[in-house]
UniProtKB/TrEMBL annotation:
<feature type="domain" description="FAD/NAD(P)-binding">
    <location>
        <begin position="5"/>
        <end position="316"/>
    </location>
</feature>
<dbReference type="Pfam" id="PF02852">
    <property type="entry name" value="Pyr_redox_dim"/>
</dbReference>
<feature type="binding site">
    <location>
        <position position="51"/>
    </location>
    <ligand>
        <name>FAD</name>
    </ligand>
</feature>
<keyword id="KW-0676">Redox-active center</keyword>
<keyword id="KW-0520">NAD</keyword>
<dbReference type="InterPro" id="IPR046952">
    <property type="entry name" value="GSHR/TRXR-like"/>
</dbReference>
<dbReference type="InterPro" id="IPR001100">
    <property type="entry name" value="Pyr_nuc-diS_OxRdtase"/>
</dbReference>
<dbReference type="InterPro" id="IPR012999">
    <property type="entry name" value="Pyr_OxRdtase_I_AS"/>
</dbReference>
<feature type="binding site">
    <location>
        <position position="260"/>
    </location>
    <ligand>
        <name>NAD(+)</name>
    </ligand>
</feature>
<dbReference type="GO" id="GO:0034599">
    <property type="term" value="P:cellular response to oxidative stress"/>
</dbReference>
<dbReference type="InterPro" id="IPR036188">
    <property type="entry name" value="FAD/NAD-bd_sf"/>
</dbReference>
<comment type="similarity">
    <text>Belongs to the class-I pyridine nucleotide-disulfide oxidoreductase family.</text>
</comment>
<feature type="active site" description="Proton acceptor">
    <location>
        <position position="436"/>
    </location>
</feature>
<dbReference type="GO" id="GO:0006749">
    <property type="term" value="P:glutathione metabolic process"/>
</dbReference>
<feature type="domain" description="Pyridine nucleotide-disulphide oxidoreductase dimerisation">
    <location>
        <begin position="337"/>
        <end position="444"/>
    </location>
</feature>
<dbReference type="GO" id="GO:0005829">
    <property type="term" value="C:cytosol"/>
</dbReference>
<dbReference type="Pfam" id="PF07992">
    <property type="entry name" value="Pyr_redox_2"/>
</dbReference>
Amino acid sequence: MTDQYDLAVLGGGSGGLAAAQQAARLGAKVVLFEPGRLGGTCVHVGCVPKKALWLAADLAHQVELARGIGFNVSAGALDWPAFVARRQAYIDRAEAGYAQRLVDLGIRVVRERARLGSDNTVSSHGVTVQATHRLIATGGRPARVDVPGFEYGAVSDDVFGLDRLPRRIAIVGGGYIAVEMAGLLHGLGAEVTLFVRGDQVLGHFDADLAEALAGSMRARGIVVHTRSAVDAVERRDGGVLLRTSGERVHRADWLLWAIGRVPNSEDLGLEDIGVSLDARGHVIIDPYQCTSVPGVFAVGDVATQPALTPVAIAAARRLVERLFSDADVPPLDLANVPTVVFAQPPLATCGLTEAQARASWGDDVQVHHARFRPMREALAGDAQTMFIKLVCVGAEERVVGLHVHGPGADEILQGFAVALRLGARRRDFNETLAIHPTAAEEVVLAGR
Ligand SMILES: Cc1cc2nc3c(=O)[nH]c(=O)nc-3n(C[C@H](O)[C@H](O)[C@H](O)COP(=O)(O)OP(=O)(O)OC[C@H]3O[C@@H](n4cnc5c(N)ncnc54)[C@H](O)[C@@H]3O)c2cc1C
Ligand SMILES: NC(=O)c1ccc[n+]([C@@H]2O[C@H](COP(=O)([O-])OP(=O)(O)OC[C@H]3O[C@@H](n4cnc5c(N)ncnc54)[C@H](O)[C@@H]3O)[C@@H](O)[C@H]2O)c1
């Protein structure tokens, strides 16, 4: 007889693990299928190893600032193997923690790929189960394009397998990953050239913010070519030669394609059971994570929702609380998703861009900017500035967008995201006592 479960989860990444664990805590009988390492993209080839590299690059920059202030220090080159070993030990500990938690919660783990079948089944190579609820949490992978010589380049997963830092790096793309990798690889000592197809890096972010970031990147020595598509790649002298739309030819030791990600929705049996996908292959979900098939749900990067770890986790928890408790759990509020691009220095944003606000409110939009040099940078003689932009609407000046670029922006945003969610007005910001001397105080002082 086929084993019966309350919930079968496909994928042991951020979304799948969160769903499986919370469901088990609520008393559900759970099986989880994961062919790879527990933790998925975020833990193994995403947020965590990326942030480790970012922290290393940030420390190197801080040593430079320390030198500017008067310390007789220099960061020197990173001992790459020692760093990788430390990073891996951190990741291995996290993964071991996940595995133990699954055991403690009585969740069955099948270390194989799975697909959905008829009659509520989920099958892998060796195991078939039936589950009342089935969750697709299979994530995504780096996109590939049909450019001659594409195979001579690497994708973001490969960054974490590097055994040393390449000297001259070319990066194609202008999104999160391209910008983050450009900043941290440059910060660790590589010469970096970025090829952006569009007019600007981070094309979907607030235009002033993106421009501020591009300015910082260039000032630090990253070469940014906009309106520059890479049409062909050749292998040359142990490295690569890129040919671009502007007839530019560029040589590099290593090439990274950072041109977006695609959902892992193939070969899951979805078409056979009638689960609808969008044109790019994402599983179409409603605000309750329901797919077009009753009893089949989706969370995370495989689905039509922002591809961020906290979104996958929050969506997963809410879904299983809806399924396995009596609580009336509303849909996840995606109106003010705070997000940080770990550039050097970071960029943080929450709510609407100015263009989005104007599209809805027209002239009833007020914008307040601040640009200044933070005290540490000024003391150290570093030219880096901080950029803050507040987008407000209506007579009450409700704050609908906050955009920050500069040192510490990554840690500043989280608390202000609460204020935006609660509908704070500029007056509420201005009436909040500042913390002096900090960079964050400029957010509450904006427009005064
Ligand atoms: C370089 C990089 C940096 C990032 N940095 C950040 C960041 O700083 N902050 C942030 O919020 N987000 C970041 N992200 C995005 C974040 O990693 C993802 O949004 C998040 O990991 C998505 O989680 P998920 O559960 O949907 O998928 P994943 O974590 O990708 O997990 C999916 C799992 O499903 C498994 N799987 C696939 N097919 C099957 C199958 N048929 N059966 C069973 N299992 C299967 C896979 O092996 C995988 O383990 C980053 C992403 C990348 C690539
Ligand atoms: N800090 C974070 O939270 C973080 C970090 C990394 C990734 N992520 C998540 O992962 C997602 C994927 O990141 P990403 O950077 O791969 O995608 P992205 O969607 O952010 O950016 C893709 C970029 O590639 C460009 N592009 C697409 N096709 C191209 C082509 N053929 N030639 C040249 N350029 C091309 C696009 O114009 C865009 O600038 C992000 O959208 C984000 O949700 C989050």
